[in-house]
Amino acid sequence: MEQNQNKNKGVAADCSTSSDDVERYFNSLPVGYRFAPSDDELIRYYLLRKINNEHLPPNRIHVVDLYNYSPQQLAETYKLNRERESQWYFFTSREKKYPNGSRPKRNAGELGYWKATGTDKAILDGKKPLGFRKSLDYYEGRQRDGTKTNWKMHEYLLHQSLVPSGATARGKNPLQPNQETKRRKSKPSESPISWDSHYAKP
């Protein structure tokens, strides 16, 4: 991991899931078992617990400032176990593009950006709202002149009703509840994997 970090300009690796114990845990699972939570599980058992500073189950989620790096840099740093994984998962803080605006920052490294596509999907627990899932495509180049690539991302946002009391949109905590997003990233090919039609093995 250190070698990859140096190669990729110090991509952050502040994540307990990269510990040897967690690696051994996932490698010990029988063939066919993998870290592949559903949308509602991602929000209930990981994003919400992360925001509330609660213990998380063993996971493959990395903490990183996603907007500082291209997906290629992240993929190079956070290696997948190709026998078990086809997607990356990240915790990252959501930043505003302008201090007094509401639009989020979508830069990805020096020469790329993420662009939202389609409409947001509501994530429910029965009839109870948990949050939302937003789909994004990665473009290389400057905004308005960029070239669309095959990299795709899902961004998960917590519903306002679940944000802990006292949280503010301008909190200084980089993992403030209404600033934090949860993402997973994959590079699709022509053959989608069976459990999620939006993703395929890179």
Task: Give a brief outline of the structure.
This protein is 17% helix and 27% strand. It has 202 residues and is α+β, with helices and mostly antiparallel strands.
Polypeptide structure, described:
There is one protein chain. Helix content is 17%, strand content 27%. It is α+β, with helices and mostly antiparallel strands. The protein has a 6-stranded mixed beta sheet with strand order 1-2-6-5-4-3, with helices on one face. The model is unreliable at 1-18, 168-182 and 188-202 (pLDDT under 50). It has helices at residues 2-7, 20-27, 39-51, 71-77, and strands at 61-63, 88-93, 112-125, 128-140, 147-158, 180-186. The radius of gyration is 17 Å and the shape is globular. Strand 1, helix 4 (71-77) and strand 2 (88-93) form a beta-alpha-beta unit. It contains 4 helices and 6 strands.
Strand % is 25-35%
The helix tally amounts to 4
Termini separation comes to 20 Å
**Class by alpha and beta content:** alpha+beta
Radius of gyration: 17 Å
